[in-house]
UniProtKB/TrEMBL annotation:
Subcellular location: Cytoplasm
Any one GO BP annotation for this protein: lysyl-tRNA aminoacylation
Family: Belongs to the class-II aminoacyl-tRNA synthetase family.
PROSITE patterns: AA_TRNA_LIGASE_II
Top-level EC class as recorded in UniProt: ligase
Chain residues that bind Mg(2+) 1: E410, E417
Full protein name: Lysine--tRNA ligase
InterPro entries: Aa-tRNA-synt_II, aa-tRNA-synth_II, aa-tRNA-synth_II/BPL/LPL, Lys-tRNA-ligase_II, Lys-tRNA-ligase_II_N, Lys-tRNA-synth_II_C, NA-bd_OB-fold, NA-bd_OB_tRNA
């Protein structure tokens, strides 16, 4: 039995009917009780008794108490069936008047789809083989005033699923599975680093100077100090201050905020993992990230396969490693070795491929733009791209054999950037010069340039040991491991335009 509204008028009528039922329930003095305690979960019961036949269940006569939402109800005279859903899954309710009692059975028939109930009874298996709870007690715990969407269509409007995630989670088991997998991935990240003697820390979200990434920040005003503050774009500079202080292996699962566009791959509020390790370089980080992603992939595949679709990525094979120069050559037949030997040759090759630039750009900026426009989206299998130009890497250590490039990498999978890491710049004077160059770029109109952070330079002057650090986008990682194409599918409450705009 379903109860759906095909129009706003139908919905208003159904809500009014349910409110009348709630009114009667209040008059009985039993509205919204909080004294029922379930002792079993539907999904766990299904798994635990998957091999038990009807005779075995009847002999055991195991009593259970379950609670959840009614998703279906089929009334047939003195005998009815219903489907209950809790956080773990679904189970059938076998509701018989003679077993439940006349008054309770009458009350059951008045229940609506979406109501939350508590049920007590013995486990059994019906003639059709369905595991069921034979109800000896069935109580209404919460009255649902709004009808659920039609059973077979649910929330067909994708944006409505994002705006009303609570309804999406009720109606779509696959959506719930994705967020259960996400939780397992985050837990797996913690297990990985804690098992390797990393310390989990927390750094400020409100910062006087936004640093650690080239991004436009959100600005707010702190009334008590009469000063503008910024939601952090990255925790990097604070984490490296901790390494200066002697916390040699640290990580943070953090929320970052960037005042940028919204797309299938971008949300202005997102989750990042950042980790830093003293006495390590960028090659050590690549090894760690490869091991981490392989471990997380195995965990999701083994325990959360219901969350994955056919596009889910596995990380079984070794990751490819390419310098940015080699990547540009490999994926652009029209770019020759001679082209990338000089600024003029590189800019001309980029122009031929439709990459537009500025006269002020140096070699490194042109190479990066050429890579981003012609290569990045083509990196399907896991690939570490290394040796980023110093011009676009203001916090990374220069290579000893070539100071024009840095010991930096980015990891790309399915055409998406997943991780960014490098051997850290620990030369305070070099860092001050790079901050000054960034400040000059900001003054010239680059609203994503970094601020000059004098305190961070001061920290480096106390001595940062040789260190490497990396960041991994958790949202994009969950997309890969569950095969989702839009970041909103892996965020419980993604940012959306206000309705009507």
């Amino acid at each position: 039995m379903t109860e759906t509204g095909s129009s706003d008028t139908d919905t208003h009528r159904l809500v009014a009917q349910r409110k009348e039922k709630l009114k009667a329930w209040r008059e009985q003095g039993a509205a919204f009780p909080n004294d029922f305690r379930p002792d079993a979960l539907a999904g766990e019961l299904q798994r635990a008794h998957a091999d038990d036949d009807a005779e075995t269940l009847d002999e055991r006569a195991q009593e259970v108490a379950v609670a959840g939402r009614l998703l279906a109800k089929r009334v047939m005279g003195k005998l009815s069936f219903a489907t209950l859903q809790d956080r773990s899954g679904r189970i059938q309710l076998f509701v018989q008047r003679d077993l439940l009692g006349e008054d309770a059975y009458k009350a059951f028939k008045q229940l609506d789809i979406g109501d939350i109930v508590g049920v007590r009874g013995a486990l059994s298996r019906t003639n059709k083989g369905e595991l069921s709870v034979r109800a000896t007690e069935l109580r209404l715990l919460t009255k649902s005033l709004r009808p659920l969407p039609e059973k077979w269509h649910g929330l067909s409007d994708t944006e409505a699923r994002y705006r009303q995630r609570y309804v999406d989670l009720i109606m779509h088991p696959d959506s719930r599975a994705v967020f259960m997998a996400r939780s397992a991935i985050v837990r797996g990240v913690r297990d990985f680093f804690e098992s390797r003697d990393f310390l989990e820390v927390e750094t400020p979200m409100l910062q006087a100077i936004p640093g650690g990434a080239a991004a436009r920040p959100f600005v707010t005003h702190y009334n008590a100090l009469d000063h503008d503050f910024y939601l952090r774009v990255a925790p990097e500079l604070y984490l490296k201050r901790l390494v200066v202080g002697g916390l040699e292996k640290v990580f943070e699962l953090n929320r970052n905020f960037r005042n940028e566009g919204v797309s299938t791959r971008h949300n202005p509020e997102f989750t990042m993992l950042e980790f830093y390790q003293a006495y390590a370089d960028y090659r050590d980080l690549m090894d760690s990230i490869e091991a981490l992603l392989r471990e997380l992939s195995d965990r999701v595949a083994a325990n959360h396969s219901q969350a994955c679709n056919e596009d889910a990525i596995r990380f079984d094979a070794p990751f490819e490693r390419l310098s940015m120069r080699d990547a540009v050559l490999k994926y652009n037949d029209s770019v020759s070795q001679q082209d990338i030997e000089s600024l003029d040759g590189l800019s001309e090759a980029a122009a031929r491929l439709g990459v537009k630039g500025e006269a002020s750009w140096g070699y490194g900026k042109w190479l990066t733009e050429l890579f981003e426009h012609t290569v990045e989206h083509r990196l399907e299998s896991p690939t570490f791209v290394t040796d980023y130009p110093a011009e676009v890497s203001p916090l990374a250590r220069r290579r000893d054999d070539n100071p024009d490039v840095t010991e930096r990498f980015e990891l790309f999978v399915a055409g998406r950037e997943i991780a960014n890491g490098f051997s850290e710049l620990n030369d305070a004077e070099d860092q001050a010069e790079r901050f000054a160059a960034q400040a000059h770029a900001m003054a010239a109109g680059d609203d994503e340039a970094m601020y000059y952070d004098a305190d961070y330079v001061n920290a480096l002057e106390y001595g940062l040991p040789p260190t490497a650090g990396a960041g991994i986008g958790i949202d994009r990682l969950v997309m890969l491991l569950t095969g989702r194409s839009a970041i909103r599918d892996v965020l419980l409450f993604p940012q959306l335009r206000p309705q009507g705009q």
